[in-house]
Design a protein that fits this description.
It is a single chain. This protein is mainly alpha-helical. It folds into 2 domains: 100 residues, Winged helix-like DNA-binding domain superfamily/Winged helix DNA-binding domain (Arc Repressor Mutant, subunit A, Orthogonal Bundle); 50 residues. 68% of the residues lie in helices and 9% in strands. Helix 2 packs across helix 3 and helix 3 packs across helix 4. The protein is globular.
Length: 152
């Protein structure tokens, strides 16, 4: 889910895996293989996630360290809520679409109208967001930058 939203970056791939299986323990090799990430990159990603208290070491088997998502960490709670909201939002949108009797699936005129309305709303929303961002306080920018640093 996060990869679709944030991009195909190694840290995002690892976070996506961890958030999808929050109780599962992983080795660095598991994380590297699952995310199709090189071993050298996974060491950097794991170090970064550990330093932000997102990933915690759990136990060792022989010389192999296992890691798990730190569900008590505030950034993890925020990310878990984001993923939950995205999943629930997608499910709700699909259910509403299926139940709407006024939304004929093959009516080209209705689909055309919906497309133009949606794009018009996106344009208005984009202009509004640009104005809001220009008026954003310095502390808001710092928070945004810290979350971007955390994800990438």
């Amino acid at each position: 889910m996060l990869v679709d939203l944030c991009g195909d970056y190694p840290q995002v791939k690892v976070l996506d895996l961890l958030l999808s299986q929050p109780w599962q323990e992983f080795t660095k090799t598991d994380l590297a293989r699952s995310g199709n990430v090189s071993r050298s990159t996974i060491y950097q990603v794991v170090d970064n996630l550990e330093s932000h208290d997102i990933l915690i070491p759990t136990r060792k088997i022989a010389n192999t360290q296992l890691y798990r998502l730190n569900q008590n960490s505030p950034p993890v709670k925020i990310l878990m809520q984001l993923v939950t909201d995205l999943v629930e939002g997608n499910s709700l949108a699909i259910k509403e679409d299926e139940q709407d009797p006024k939304n004929p699936k093959n009516d080209k005129q209705t689909l055309n109208q919906d497309y133009h309305e949606l794009n018009g709303d996106k344009l208005k929303s984009s202009e509004k967001q640009t104005k809001e961002l220009q008026n954003e306080s310095k502390s808001g920018k710092e928070i945004t930058e810290s979350y971007q640093t955390l994800l990438f």
